[in-house]
């Protein structure tokens, strides 16, 4: 639509200039007649002066406009980079504050690490800290909110693998906070699923009951948040009830992790 309008203006402009040139070759009377005829056209171009001149200026300043656009693009990229850096700094500051809180509340010694990637076999993560940072197999890993992630199952010089609590290799004791404390056993089922079993059938468990590590068995320190009950099942022929646990680390964005460095017990099978 804009192109058609511009083409129309240019056509009228060329006709107008041609008539003006022709009028310069004829007598004064003829010139006067031309002026009478062309006055509406002159008035039109006077009113449209800004837009037509703007278009003409664009034609002559095309190179400068392209250069300005490139400059603006560069400045925009620089601004986005600074905003990203600011967001990263903010995340790191929040992680450090949480680290200090956990160390004070739980008495943990923690090492902050960044998530590198998800493990190839699933239910595992890779982090950017390793043996050179004092890590060893069996150390407990938490997410940035302080919830249980899993344990270190492989440690290299500059990186480590975390086997998540949802891995079938993970079996550990838990405490369910219901009407009373209910002890049970949690086991990973793979594909980020976690189950529990061996909770006494007479205990009244409810959905959303919080689940913590019990500290029994020595695999993980006690009192660490695991998740909440997602499903419970009772079998009249059995003495125990079972169900599923929703791991809390699935409820949060995972960018950084904490490694507890003053509690270690290498689990069998990891």
UniProtKB/TrEMBL annotation:
Q: Which domain of life is it from?
A: Bacteria
Tell me which residues make up the Rod shape-determining protein MreC beta-barrel core domain. Answer: 123-260
Alphabetically list the UniProt keywords.
Cell shape
Is Heme found in the keyword set?
no
Report any one BP term from Gene Ontology: regulation of cell shape
The record's listing under InterPro entries reads: Cell/Rod_1, Cell/Rod_MreC_2, MreC, MreC_beta-barrel_core
Pfam families given for it? MreC
Q: What is any one of the record's Gene Ontology cellular component terms? A: plasma membrane
Does the UniProt entry include the keyword Cytoplasm?
no
Database matches in PANTHER family: CELL SHAPE-DETERMINING PROTEIN MREC
Question: What functional role does this protein have?
Answer: Involved in formation and maintenance of cell shape.
Give the record's family classification: Belongs to the MreC family.
Name listed for the protein in its UniProt record:
Cell shape-determining protein MreC
